[in-house]
Amino acid sequence: xESEKFWDARYREQPKSWGxxxxxxxxxxxxxxxxSAVDLAGGNGRNSLWMASQGLKAENVDISSVALEQFLDxxxxxxxxxxxxxxxxxAINAKFQLTPELLxxxxxxxxxxxxxxxxxNSLAQVANGARVFGVWHAIENLEHGYGGPPSKEVLVxxxxxxxxxxxxxxxxxxxxxxxxxxxxxxxxxxxxDVVLEGTLSx
Length: 202
Ligand SMILES: C[S@@+](CC[C@H](N)C(=O)[O-])C[C@H]1O[C@@H](n2cnc3c(N)ncnc32)[C@H](O)[C@@H]1O
Prior knowledge:
This protein is of the alpha/beta class. The chain has seven helices and seven strands, in the order ααβαβαββαβααββ. The protein is globular, with a radius of gyration of 16 Å.
């Protein structure tokens, strides 16, 4: 409830926080052959909107109803509303409308125990052989990177992701820290993200 209020206020005050473009690492993945995606904690929808513009049915699942209203407005403006679904729910027990072929989790920064529940709850609802893409502010970002949450308890590590993924069987699985460039008024800065990419065995 607190989290919902916090994020609703944040989106009312700063609707442009995450910009219009999809996350750089998500935009580099090949969507060929995929028809549906769930964007967990998709916010006001930059990643869902991009996937919908590529022809996928995209369901944005977020705790903030304000973010989801903004997402649906943006989908209308881009004339892709027929490809977009919104579900207001907490990631730890959200029930998806779709059984997605692609699960995207971008910058869902919640404490580790909640994150673990959200991860397993999501993977339980994807299609057989689904692809999973995740990106988070890495724990290393706190001391060595730009931006991101200032609190260690919501930052994510490669080790944490390895542990969470080990109970599933994967055709391929990559977990690694990556540098992301950000242009700021004070010049180019580097943020350290941790990225997960994999395909579940069907
Ligand atoms: C940093 S924003 C990222 C938004 C989006 N994924 C993006 O990359 O543009 C974090 C998002 O997580 C959502 N969120 C936070 N806690 C959540 C929870 N427990 N369940 C679902 N969404 C949550 C917030 O509402 C917010 O939209």
